[in-house]
Amino acid sequence: METKILTPQQIATAAKLIQAGQLVAFPTETVYGLGADATNPTAVKQVYAAKGRPSDNPLIVHVSDIAMVQQFAAVIPPVAQQLMEQFWPGSLTIILPVKPGSLDRVVTGGLTTVAFRLPANEVTRALIRQAGVPLVGPSANTSGKPSPTTAQHVAHDLNGKIAAIVDDGPTKVGVESTVIDLSTSHPAILRPGAITKAQLATIVGDLNVDHHHVDAKETPKAPGMKYTHYSPKATVIQVADADWNLVREQVANDATVGILAFDRQVAAFTSLKTYSLGTDVTSASARLFAGLRYFDDLPEIKTIYVATVPVTGLGAAYMNRLNKSAGGQWFKK
Length: 333
Ligand code: TXA
Ligand code: MG
What we know:
- With about 325 residues, this protein is an alpha/beta fold.
- It has helices spanning about 10-20, 40-50, 65-70, 80-85, 105-110, 120-130, 150-160, 195-205, 245-250, 265, 280-295, 315-325; strands spanning about 5, 25, 35, 60, 90-95, 115, 135, 165, 180, 190, 210, 235-240, 255-260, 275, 305.
- The model has no long low-confidence stretch (mean pLDDT about 95).
């Protein structure tokens, strides 16, 4: 199939494709999502096939308003309602008990809960409204690869496998939404994102953080956490701020090395391939996945050294993604 690139003005075409059970990638403020009608199990199955995603990894249901959540959630507790009012539209995904029989198990991965998100991108909210149904939306990458932050990244992974991509330019946040589980009596953050723990705590109070590394034998709360993630072809190595001088001494003339770091750090690597993370954690989060993908297109690069940030605020999200893509590896003196 030929994958059409649609402009934001062509939402009506995208909505018709969704209603016909086709797959359409859509922009959000975090990363691009792979959309299908969440109420059409045949369409949702194709999402797993196109991504090569394991079928026990449930999908986020993207809505255009809170009323849509009421159709599929068994209950919206007051704290969930408050979070929706405070942070939606935005980079927060909320897990609630599913209303029995309202969604096929292919959406929930057989769990009794379901994840909801109202994205900030207006084009996509218009698409959901026009389609008249919520959209499942995993990140629109091949499973295991860094999430896509441009329509070109989506085309690179899924061209020929999906009906269309709505191109609304590069995403702003660059890391996926914060996932909070409100389906139990102990609210927990399952994935850090741009909505920080401190922001959530103002409404939820005390919060568990449940995105530690789990191995294949454990059952993580967010099934997606047990799979390899964000992996480019090259080996990724995390570099502590204080170690950049040592890295330079060791690899300054090694053409198999790529440098993904802040402006102040890449300046020292004039003879290597570099990709800038900009100046702060906001630009770094927006560019991390694009940077990893940049080196995928350079076959000579075997190792990528990547800058780290303090694990606080948005830095918790950046470091969570980077640590996964590095398989936990750090530069050692
Ligand atoms: O920013 C985002 O959230 C992007 C954009 C497109 O909205 N979407 C996204 O979806 O990152 P995905 O499928 O790549 O990641 C969803 C994560 C997975 O780790 C999945 O296991 C978890 O959320 N998840 C989904 N439903 C769940 C549920 N009912 N219980 C626990 N975890 C769930
Ligand atoms: Mg993903």
